[in-house]
Amino acid sequence: MIAENRCRGHARQRIALPADTATLPPMKTAGPHHAAPLPHPAPQGMGVAALRRDAARDLAVVACAVLLLALAFARAAGLGLDYALKVLLCLGLGVWLVWQALHVHPHARFGPANRVTLARLGAASLLAALVGEALPRPPLAAMPVAAWGLVVVATATALLDALDGALARRSGLASAFGARFDMETDAAFTLVLCALVLQAGQAGPWVLASGLMRYAFVAAARAWPWLAGALPPSRRRQTVCVVQITTLIVCLGPIVPPPLAAGLAGISLVLLTLSFAIDVRTLARQRPTPSET
After folding, report:
1. Of 4, 190, 19, 188, whose CA–CA distance to 90 is shortest?
2. Is the peptide bond before 232 cis (omega within 30 degrees of 0)?
3. What pTM does this model have?
């Protein structure tokens, strides 16, 4: 799941999408970026229809559950119906992207691991819709119940990420689609947390760099394709991922004063920046020379 989405040491048998099958911008992964073709051929004919029916059922169930939660949360927190509409818009965008990428799913079933990731996407949508709302607002200590509720939801969303890899391996449904779905959900979740930390007055606008850095890297890879090269798995990246997401959640705690939160977020941002810098240096050293191209 976690903040620096270039790596996922505990995730579901990570397999990078081949360049000719990826429908979204290339991303940095723990394993080779341009790996071998998908481990199984994409389903054809009846298999595609079965996959879409299975996915549509799961998407509908999660959408209904998220809507009910959004309405209940809006009522409890004194938010308007516009909050629930924002939740649906956020979730709808994610669902649309998932649906558009189903053609690279190699199995005829959506799978339990993807259902867990879909649930995390729903939880992230509940949090994303809080951006611009009356909570969280500074000082967090003045709204402890709401702040702790936010921390609980964010923590649960983070912890769910530990399940999808095991489920994918156990069910035999590990895929590049699932790995990409998981990583994109992580990236969005991290950016949402950054925005909430800023909104809560726990850190300055610079905290958004933690969530935007990965997207900036993807954009840079379009200008400099060598940035999309292969990187070996790294314990360092995995550790930075965990530190990053944990720090952002801690910053939302009502007992954490803004100066401490800003310090923690700043340290994690420095670690993230150094990790990116190390990988950029590695990619620069292994990029092909003009004579090789």
Report:
1. 188
2. no
3. 0.82
The residue behind tokens 């579901």 is 12
Q: Name the residue type at position 226.
A: W
Domains of the chain: 46-286 (1.20.120)
Token output for 194 = 């950054």
Q: What is the DSSP letter of 129?
A: T
pLDDT digits (tens, 9 = 90+) for 200-245: 999 999 999 999 999 999 999 999 999 988 888 788 988 898 899 9
Measured from the Cβ of residue 256, the count of other Cβ atoms closer than 10 Å reads 19
- CB-CB contact of 157 with 124 (8 Å): yes
- What is the rounded CA–CA span in Å between residue 48 and residue 102? 9
251-270 pLDDT, tens digit per residue, is: 999 999 999 999 999 999 99
Two tokens, residue 128: 């994303």
| Ramachandran sector of residue 45 (left: φ over 0; alpha: ψ -120 to 50; beta: rest) | left
Q: Write the single-letter amino acid at 80.
A: G
> Which two tokens mark 180?
């990409």
Q: At what angle do helices 112-128 and 161-171 cross, to 10 degrees?
A: 160
Over residues 145-170, mean pLDDT = 90
Closest C-alpha to 7, from 202, 238, 212, 179: 238
Integer Cα distance of 14 and 22 in angstroms: 15
How wide is the angle at C-alpha 7 spanned by C-alphas 5 and 12, nearest 5°? 100
Amino acid 43 reads P
Q: Do residues 84 and 109 lie in contact, with contact meaning Cβ atoms separated by under 8 Å?
A: no
Q: CB of 27 within 8 A of CB of 5?
A: yes
DSSP 138: S
Length of the chain: 293
